[in-house]
């Protein structure tokens, strides 16, 4: 039998796998937790390392005195330090995961409204997508929601592998998306290669979970208001947008009901051209006094007979129209009679608009006087370089272009006041109040203009505030990637190719020859 010295030279090679096992055990234990596997790797590695160092040639004194040993030890310590740093970085990345969106329009960042809704979720809420092939874009959006609030989770389910769960949810086809909170399950939308998951739709659904109260919006009819059924150009797009956020939209003929229904969250009077009967005005007044919410969109040159309703709020409608003489609207194809608004009030309806633009064709000023108990906030302000002019009886507008401006004018206002005689609310509940939004134009939210600029946002945000849902704005525009493509003509492409393939190399060659000649 060979002596131990014959095998001793081979034992030194156990130190290398021992070191590898120790490193693997440390990294696995720090990142994934100290379970049985990381502990076994660490102990096994330490054992092999000790055997290699103590029983191998490393245990001889002359080995440690060699210069190569010193260099190797330095390299080993450096390697261990780098591995320790990498392990720490991985640990911090797993424990405190975060992302930085460096895109110009923040296309990978949730809107502030979405973040607020997710953060206010009180109960665990889950989104279930029945799709065998998850779309990376949809998964990225859902991951952003998950990081915004601890109560939000999501799951992708292959309906072919789990048909029982698909049957429980009522998923009859692939691409169906559901929101689940407690005992409530609600269908959200269908996703497909051409239709991706919508942040607006998802946030609106989550907000309904938070509020736990359906939003019912009534549009008055019978006074030549804009229709909502699509029979003519009117508020079909606006009504559809409300339904997309789970609102119930209904027509309301006060001449037949004589009172606003009890389930009304908001009543909208959109562009009436005929006067309301006194009984109808009284019905709206009673609804407001009881804590209701009303939106009045009144075009110029109309007298719907609502002065007695507006007087207690200190609101009067000017008979003139506002003209923007600054020329800013003309730059985007708008005339002076369609003021471009970029100045918004500090109110939940318009707070997040920033410098966004909305426009109001033929809009009348809304005058507001201070009334005790009424809180009034201007929402829309015309350009300071604007003025108000009257229309003739024939509807013609004649004005002096050289006349000095007299703006800005208030084009829309939001008002609220406490409900008289209302019972004291609970400790965590707000006091009941009546809310009113008055805008001197209804055309801005009609079909075709509703989706232009921030016009639809003004309408939807006003409905959200009037409905006394959450303070989150439910009108969220999708983030768009700025088009930075460079379009070249054929001549420009040829010129660029000649410059890159011929002129630039010749310049480099000439400079090289010049440097060679100077060095001679």
Short key terms for the protein model shown above:
520 residues, alpha/beta, extended
A few lines on this structure:
The chain has 15 helices and 18 strands. It has helices at 4-11, 15-32, 36-55, 61-64, 67-95, 112-119, 136-148, 163-169, 199-211, 236-244, 254-257, 278-289, 307-310, 455-466, 490-519; strands at 125-130, 152-157, 176-181, 184-190, 216-220, 248-252, 266-270, 293-297, 315-317, 321-324, 340-341, 343-344, 358-359, 366-368, 375-381, 386-389, 410-418, 433-439.
What does this molecule look like?
- The protein is an alpha/beta fold and 520 residues long.
- It has 15 helices and 18 strands.
- An eight-stranded mixed β-sheet has the order 6-5-7-8-18-17-15-12, sandwiched between helices. Strands 2-1-3-4 form a four-stranded mixed β-sheet, with helices on both faces.
- Strand 3 and strand 4 form a beta hairpin.
- Helix 6 packs parallel to helix 9.
Spatial ordering of strands, largest sheet:
6-5-7-8-18-17-15-12
* Low-pLDDT stretches: none
Strand content: 15-25%
Please count the beta strands (DSSP E, at least 2 residues each).
18
Helix content: 25-40%
Q: Mean pLDDT across all residues, rounded? A: 82
Report the biggest beta sheet as strand number plus sense, adding barrel if it closes: 8 strands, mixed
Distance between the termini: 76 Å
* Overall SS class: alpha/beta
Number of helices: 15
Radius of gyration: 35 Å
């Amino acid at each position: 039998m060979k002596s131990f010295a014959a095998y001793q030279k081979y034992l030194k090679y156990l130190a290398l796998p021992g070191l590898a096992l120790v490193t693997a055990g440390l990294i696995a234990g720090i990142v994934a937790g100290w379970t049985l596997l990381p502990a076994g790797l660490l102990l096994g590695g330490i054992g092999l390392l000790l055997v290699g160092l103590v029983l191998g040639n490393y245990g001889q004194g002359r080995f440690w005195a060699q210069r190569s040993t010193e260099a190797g030890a330095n390299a080993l310590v450096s390697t261990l330090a780098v591995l320790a740093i990498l392990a720490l970085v991985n640990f911090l990345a797993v424990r405190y995961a975060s992302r930085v969106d460096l895109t110009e329009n923040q296309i990978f960042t949730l809107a502030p409204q979405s973040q607020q809704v997710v953060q206010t979720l009180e109960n665990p809420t889950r989104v279930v997508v029945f799709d065998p092939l998850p779309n990376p874009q949809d998964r990225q959006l859902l991951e952003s929601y998950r990081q915004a609030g601890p109560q939000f989770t999501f799951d992708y389910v292959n309906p072919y592998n789990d048909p029982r769960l698909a049957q429980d949810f009522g998923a009859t086809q692939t691409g169906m998306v559901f929101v689940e909170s407690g005992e409530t399950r609600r269908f959200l939308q269908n996703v497909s290669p051409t239709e991706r998951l919508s942040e607006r739709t998802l946030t609106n659904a989550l907000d309904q979970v938070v509020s736990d109260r359906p939003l019912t919006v009534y549009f008055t009819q019978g006074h030549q208001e804009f229709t909502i059924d699509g029979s003519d150009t009117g508020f079909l797009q606006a009504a559809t947008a409300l339904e997309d956020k789970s609102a119930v939209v209904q027509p309301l003929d006060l001449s037949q009901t004589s009172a606003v229904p009890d389930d009304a969250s908001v009543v909208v009077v959109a562009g009436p051209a005929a006067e309301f009967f006194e009984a109808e005005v009284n019905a709206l007044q009673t609804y407001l006094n009881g804590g209701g919410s009303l939106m009045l969109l009144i075009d110029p040159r109309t007298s719907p007979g609502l002065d007695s309703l507006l007087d207690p709020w200190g609101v009067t409608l000017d008979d003139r129209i506002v003209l923007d003489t600054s020329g800013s609207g003309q730059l985007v194809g708008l005339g002076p009679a369609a003021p471009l608004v970029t100045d918004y009030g500090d109110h939940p309806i318009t707070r997040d608009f920033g410098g966004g633009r909305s426009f109001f064709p033929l809009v009348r000023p809304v005058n507001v006087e201070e009334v005790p108990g009424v809180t009034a906030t201007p929402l829309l302000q015309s350009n300071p370089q604007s003025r108000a002019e009257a229309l003739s009886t024939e509807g013609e507008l004649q004005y002096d272009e050289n006349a000095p401006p007299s703006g800005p004018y208030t084009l829309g206002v939001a008002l609220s006041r406490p409900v008289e005689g209302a019972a004291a609310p609970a400790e965590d509940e707000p006091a009941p109040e009546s809310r009113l939004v008055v805008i001197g134009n209804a055309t801005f939210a009609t079909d075709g203009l509703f989706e232009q600029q921030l016009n639809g946002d003004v309408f939807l945000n006003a409905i959200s505030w009037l409905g006394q849902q959450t303070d989150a704005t439910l009108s969220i525009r999708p983030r768009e990637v700025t088009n930075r493509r460079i379009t070249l003509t054929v001549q420009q492409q040829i010129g660029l190719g000649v410059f890159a393939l011929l002129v630039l190399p010749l310049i480099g060659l000439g400079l090289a020859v010049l440097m060679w000649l100077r060095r001679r």
